[in-house]
Amino acid sequence: MQAMIRGFDAPLFIPILKEGVVYLIDKYQVMKSKHNFNVLLEDLMIVLSRMSEVKEIVEDNTQYPDYHFNFVHFKDLPDKIYKKKILTDVIGIVTTITPVTKVQLNNRDVPVQKRDIYIQNASCESLKVVLYGDITLSIQEQEILQRNTNVVLAFAGLMIKT
């Protein structure tokens, strides 16, 4: 199930919540999912607030997966163009990584960093994934391209555009 913390409550949870840890949560709300940018296609979501109680469960957490992906076949991507209800996950072998450049976007006052990454699926179909902002620097171009093996990258939470 997807969960949300509103911006004004986020500072309360930043020091508490850690990735890879399982929690017991009490005093939360259940509400209809947002209309856009969901990671799961569910009708309901959990909303944490300053009234919520979060307790770390200290036990063997290996029964819970660290990550969940809903990978989409490349051939199904045209059906997701500009659809905002649910974000898209893709996976593929890296074929090309462009250097980071600066571009001016219509919705930004200052230029942002941009990088294109081309991936290929098992059917040899190619896909260009465009990254913007600080995430562009997290991809170590030289390290990936100098490997003697294929490098597989998974991209989660993408908005599909043309």
From TrEMBL:
Q: Which SUPFAM superfamilies match?
A: Nucleic acid-binding proteins
GO terms (molecular function) for this protein are: DNA binding
Q: What region holds the Replication protein A OB domain?
A: 84-159
Listed InterPro entries: NA-bd_OB-fold, REPA_OB_2
| Record key words, sorted | DNA-binding
Q: Name one Pfam family in it.
A: REPA_OB_2
The name on file for this protein is Replication protein A OB domain-containing protein
Give the source species: Theobroma cacao
